[in-house]
Amino acid sequence: QEPEKIGTMIDPVPERSVQMLHDHQYVGAFAYISVPGRQPLTFFSPHLSVGGNVKYFRSTLAGYDADAFAYDLGLLFRTPRFHLNTGLFDYLIISLGASATNFGNAVTFINEATPLPQTSRAGIAANLGSHHGFQLGADLDYRKIRDEDGYLTFGSEISWRQLVSLRMGYSWEDNLLGHFVFGGSLRFDDFILSNNLIGRNNALRLELASNQNNDLLDSPYHGTITHQPIGPEAFRLFEPAYDKYVESDSVILKWELTRDPDLYDDVDHWIIVDKDSSKLANIVVLSQQNNSDVLVQVRDLPLFVNQATNQTHLSLENLEVGDYFWSVLAYDKDFHFRFAKLDNQRIAKFHVTAPDPRVIAIHFDHSEWITTDDYQGILQFTVCNLGDQLAKNLTLSIFDSLSIQGSVNKRALIYQQPLSDLAPGDTILFQTEWRTPFNGLHDIVAKIHDSKNQDQIENQNSSAFYTIPKGKFSTTDTSIIQQHYQVIYDLPYVGKIFFESNSAEVREEYFRFWTIEPPLALFAKRLRENPSIRIYLQGTIDPNSDEQDITLANSRANAVMETLHELGVNLDQMEILEGEKLPLRKVPQNPEDRRWVYEERRRVDITTDKVSEELLFKPLQTIYIEKTDSSVVFDSDIIGVVPLKSGKIYLSADNLADSLALSKFSDGSSLTAPVNWLLPQKEANGLSSWLDKKGSYGLTLTDSLDRKFKVKQQATNLASEVIGRERRYYVLANFALASAYYEFYWTNLLNTIPYLLENPDTRISFQGHGCAVGPEAINMALSKQRSQYFHDKFLADVRQRYPELYDRVKQRVDLPRGTGETEPLEFRNESGKQVILGENEKPLGRQLNRR
Fold it and tell me: How many secondary structure helices (H) and strands (E) does the chain include?
């Protein structure tokens, strides 16, 4: 059928047997039996084959029988496929063949021997084509039959995908009535017709041919129906033999490669191996489906071996004990599948049996303590003999290596232990400390080897473990959790009571309501405490305010005296002086400034003798302590490898306890930045509840592997500290002047000099202020004059009073500064509220701003 196919050169039918009898005008019947054989000479060349045929021929003629044996021999060479890449034809194949047929004894009837028609034949064929395109074949043969002239025959065929073929042939044999023959064929394969009709991996071919007609005979027709396989040819699995017991952990699988009858098709091989036979059985079922996706499904299956191959063997090593199932699947471009067979089984089986000592588990029990040493925890190794034989003379060796950027550095031996004989199924647990100074991911390799030859590895297992965090976490022996800044205000008082125009009524702010203690209430208290003090009250009137009657000035003095008397001051401690009518004065053009000047001229002046002046008018001291909560600062230098997921600092003192959650870590895996923890103020006294207590603290960390670590508990004393003190000493100044209103204020300031020098950090500065009466520029200049005046006076008085301290004091005095009217007198009360005393809208406030 296909003379170009290797091994099919020899036709099993005795060539021209019928024609031979016809030529000799014999009349009778004949029969023959043919036993063909063909063999590719792959040991010599994959492109060379030889064929042979043995035929037995028997004939009956006119009651006489004759028989003979005939022998055929042929040789065929086929070139490899040449790639053309012409777009129409992909491949070119050339075949060369020669044969000698019908050698043997002559056929003898009675006495006459008729020689067999020995025939010599040689030819060449060319095939061009593509598997899914057009195919073109042409061949030229020369034949020489015994006692006849030789002749040539030519044949050609063109096909499309082997589905539709057209054929033409011509023979130069002289005794033919017609030299031309024409024909064609249709082929239906399993992808066109139902599998049930023609069978999986098969095709049905219908052929029809017609010889050339002539003047004597009509055209004879020839028709054939051929049912043929079209998938890969059958092939075999060689070894190991089916159900063989392999006493080793390695085996070599061997099989033969198969071919496809289509010259233009290719066959690929796929080997599958697994311990689960059901997986391979499912693949066999899948291969029987007429679906190109079968191979895709097979490739995705999780098998021990699942890979394409063009080899005829595969070496499997380090096999576990047990049953293994394997097969080789061949498939062509049309996804026709065929499994290799061993003992008529598609799935072969072998059993691995041997002593199989294995490290079946490696476990790392990490240390929970964060320390600075190299201790990481305990490594545990479970060794079991999974084989069917006794394991003996073995040693367990443990190696440690640090993985760095995908590579592994040199392994270090960290533990070694001889193993006692292990019977099949025996299990032993070993453990050892793991110490390493190198942080990172470590490969822990456990090897079981012959005790005398460490390089003879029987089995090994490995696991990768991350080191634990290492470092320190601590704070100082004393932790400052609160800082105090103290400000002492010496708030000044002045003996002046101001009135509304043409009024002698004392306003409530002087005896009942004021930002701080009302002046008359404070004076009354001090007069009661010091009955020897005598004061003088003198009222004034202001002609600029249209006040002319002097009795108004006396009425104002009487009103102040009555108020003080009501506050408990004895009348004999008070004396009213004759009222004073102030002279007219030039007033500012600004209406507001003019009004403020008038207000300060309508007053009662309270005076006393110099000895009593300080007792009566001394400042009211107010102390404000600003408390700033401070963090407990923990120094941390903990280096980790695995990202940290969470952390917590805990602190307890007496019956108090609290914790601080950590969520941010240096580079995600370390805690190297200081941690500032502001203790909670939910207790009744806030942070004061924690003060002067000894606290115990610790740290816990959890990494992304859910490993938990902690540092050992430590102690710190919780305390407070004073970070600064400030004293604001106010010296009131006279209106529009740079002189002090009360001299004792200045004297008291000089008395504090030795105290000021006790603290080496003390600084002294003079700041001059003014009220809002008049232009801002004048008030700014006046405030600078005041600060400069008192600055110079202070240094001069210190030089005179404390000559030995002068140089030290001078080094601590800053340059004077004037603020004009921009900074009215203000202070913070005990609750921390900012309070303004120097209200420029009120005459008393303006008096306090002149300082």
Answer: 13, 49
Query: In angstroms, rounded to a whole number, what is the distance separating the alpha carbons of residues 671 and 474?
Result: 12
Q: Take residue 590 and report the two structure tokens written for it.
A: 């600004």
Nearest in space to 480 (alpha carbons), one of 630, 690, 660, 628 = 630
Q: What is the DSSP letter of 757?
A: T
Structure tokens at 194: 């139902």
CB atoms within 10 A of CB 347: 19
Among 473, 479, 828, residue whose Cα is nearest residue 687:
479
- Between 206 and 371, the more confident residue is 371
Query: Two tokens at 469?
Result: 């965090």
Q: What is the DSSP secondary-structure string of 513-556?
A: --SSS-HHHHHHHHHHH-TT--EEEEEEE-GGGT---THHHHHH
Tell me how far CA of residue 12 lies from CA of 36, 97, 393, 470, in angstroms.
Answer: 6, 16, 66, 87
Q: What is the pTM of this model?
A: 0.49
Count the neighbouring beta carbons within 10 Å of the beta carbon of residue 584: 9
Q: Where are the strands (E) in 609-655, listed by range? A: 620-629, 632-639, 644-653
What gap in Å lies between CA 418 and CA 383, rounded to an integer?
12
CB atoms under 10 Å from CB of 332, counted, come to 22
Contact (CB, 8 A) for 711 and 506:
no
Pairing of strands 134-145, 151-160: antiparallel
| Contact of 251 with 352, CB cutoff 8 Å | yes
Q: How far apart are CA 72 and CA 78, in angstroms?
A: 20
Query: In a 3-state reduction of DSSP, which class is residue 295?
Result: helix
The closest of 515, 603, 533, 506 to 524, measured between CA atoms, is 533
Question: Which two three-digit tokens encode residue 268?
Answer: 């690929």
CA distances from 601 to 24, 85, 733, 821 (A): 171, 121, 17, 21
- For 186-199, give the secondary structure using H, E and C: EEEECCCCCHHHHC
Mark residue 77 as left, alpha or beta (left: phi above 0; alpha: psi -120 to 50; beta: remaining). Answer: beta
What's at 833, amino acid-wise? K
Which H or E run includes 592? helix 591-601
d(CA 643, CA 704): 6
Output the CA angle 831-835-837, nearest 5 degrees: 145
Nearest to 199 by CA among 163, 229, 226: 229
Pairing of strands 107-109, 112-114: antiparallel
How many Cβ atoms sit within 10 Å of the Cβ of residue 86?
Answer: 10
97 in Cβ contact with 9 (< 8 Å): yes
* 498, 603 contact by CB (below 8 A): yes
Token readout for 140 is: 């030229």
Cβ 470 vs Cβ 366: under 8 Å: no
pLDDT in tens, 167-201: 999 989 887 777 889 899 988 887 676 666 777 77
Q: What gap in Å lies between CA 422 and CA 303, rounded to an integer? A: 31
Q: Please, is 145 exposed, middle or buried when counting C-beta atoms within 10 Å of its C-beta (0-12, 13-18, 19+)?
A: buried
Alpha helices by DSSP H, listed for 543-643, are 551-566, 591-601, 610-617
CA neighbor of 352 nearest in space, from 245, 276, 272: 245
Q: Is the peptide bond before 240 cis (omega within 30 degrees of 0)?
A: yes
Residue 262, pLDDT > 80, answer yes
Comparing 69-78, 327-336, 367-376, 673-682, which segment has the lowest mean pLDDT? 673-682
Look-up of token digits 């098998």:
303
Phi then psi for residue 848, to 5 deg, are -70, -25
Cα–Cα distance measured from residue 396 to residue 231, given in angstroms and rounded to the nearest whole number? 53
Quick check: 108 and 129 in contact, CB under 8 A?
no
Token digits of residue 796 = 């001069």
**Cα–Cα dist 324/273, whole Å:** 7
| Rounded mean pLDDT, 310-330 | 89
Report which residue type is found at 464: A
Sorted by sequence, the CB contacts under 8 Å of residue 93 that are 6+ apart come out as 4, 78, 79, 80, 81, 82, 126, 127, 128, 263
